[in-house]
Structure formats: structure tokens, C-alpha cells
Design goal:
Shape of chain A: globular
Oligomer: heterodimer
Number of strands of chain B: 5
Strand content of chain B: 35-45%
Helix content of chain B: under 10%
CATH superfamily of chain A: EutN/Ccml
Low-confidence stretches of chain B: none
Mean pLDDT of chain B: 94
Number of helices of chain B: 0
Order of helices and strands of chain B: EEEEE
CATH class of chain B: Mainly Beta
Low-confidence stretches of chain A: none
Number of strands of chain A: 6
CATH superfamily of chain B: EutN/Ccml
CATH class of chain A: Mainly Beta
Radius of gyration of chain B: 14 Å
Chain lengths: ~90, ~90
């Protein structure tokens, strides 16, 4: 999974009908200091996260492994909201 | 599989239910000379690796296999802890 910050929402009425009911959030990829990197993805929210929250995103076919996204054209899903990041000085 | 080094831990109470009882570790991918390659990622740990340990992990949808749930949105999991890496000849 990769770290991201939720920076927005995508609203879309004309889309693949399998995607009806999906909540698309714009997630900015961030580094370990939560500073924005220069890419973002649109991910389906499977946890219920809000704006500016730091999240974990699973990508690829793993994104289809939830009850909602199963067999749907989805390749990125938000699967956790990060509370704390512990970096050990090793 | 790819080599990696555990450099930290992620705490997340709010997450997809199927990944509830698994530890999430912060991991820096490594090459055969154990040098950093690429950006740190987050992996699920079913083996119990500690910080600083060298491990190997799998990616994409196979990452769900080590878990005892059959469906979870996970794209990277640690599957083993490395005891020793022996590189015969310098890679070209």
C-alpha cells in the first residue's frame, strides 16, 4: 500500500454502470513527512474517510478484493485511515 | 518476491474489516546489495518482523494469500524474514 492524502472528490454521473454508488476520492501521494509528491490517483473509498486525512491506498487487482469493488473496473481503493506513523531510527 | 527492510510501523484503527488483526509495517525495498531502491511502502506483516529486520515480501493480489481471510484490499505482504543474503558475482 502507499501513503496518500485525500484532497478532493470526483463526481461522475455518466460512468460504467458497475460504478454506481462508488465514492471516488482524489488522493495525493505523500512521502513519510506527509509532504505532497507530484502524483495523485482517484481511489474508491471503502472505509469512509474525510478531506485532508492521511490514508493507505491499495492498487492493482487487490483493489477489487472488497465486497463493494469485487468484479468492478476499479484499480485503487482506500483501505485504511492512518492514525500514526512510527519511523524507527534503524 | 522483493527484499525489504522494516523501517517503521503504521497505526490505523479505522480500516477495512478484513485487515483488522494484522500489523502494518513501513518497509523500504532493497536490492541484492541491500541498498535502498524506490520509495517506502506499507506492507501487511503475517510473520512478525521487527524494525530493522531484512524481509522479503510479495505484491499484487497474491498479497492476500498469507492472510486467513480470502478477500482483502492488500497489495503487499511480508512472507519471510531473511537470515542471510549471498550474492555470488556483482550484478552487471
Amino acid at each position: 500500500m502507499t501513503l496518500g492524502k485525500v484532497i478532493g472528490t470526483v463526481w461522475s454521473t455518466r460512468k460504467d454502470e458497475a460504478l454506481v454508488g462508488a465514492k471516488f476520492l482524489i488522493v495525493q501521494q505523500v512521502n513519510l513527512k506527509y509532504e505532497a509528491k507530484d502524483n495523485f490517483i482517484v481511489a474508491v473509498d471503502s472505509v469512509g474517510v474525510g478531506l485532508n486525512e492521511i490514508v493507505l491506498v491499495a492498487q492493482g487487482s487487490s483493489a477489487r478484493q472488497t465486497t463493494f469493488t469485487r468484479n468492478k473496473p476499479i484499480d485503487a481503493v482506500i483501505m485504511a485511515k492512518v492514525d500514526k506513523l512510527d519511523i524507527s531510527k534503524v | 518476491m522483493v527484499l525489504g527492510k522494516v523501517i517503521g510501523t503504521i497505526w490505523a484503527t479505522k480500516k477495512y474489516s478484513a485487515v483488522n488483526n494484522y500489523k502494518m509495517q513501513l518497509l523500504q525495498p532493497l536490492n541484492a546489495e541491500l541498498e535502498n531502491i524506490g520509495e517506502p511502502i506499507i506492507v501487511l506483516d503475517t510473520v512478525g518482523a521487527g524494525p530493522g529486520e531484512i524481509v522479503y515480501f510479495i505484491t499484487s493480489s497474491e498479497a492476500v494469500i498469507p492472510l486467513d481471510v480470502n478477500e482483502a484490499p492488500v497489495d503487499a505482504s511480508i512472507v519471510g524474514i531473511v537470515d542471510y543474503v549471498n550474492v555470488e558475482k556483482k550484478l552487471a
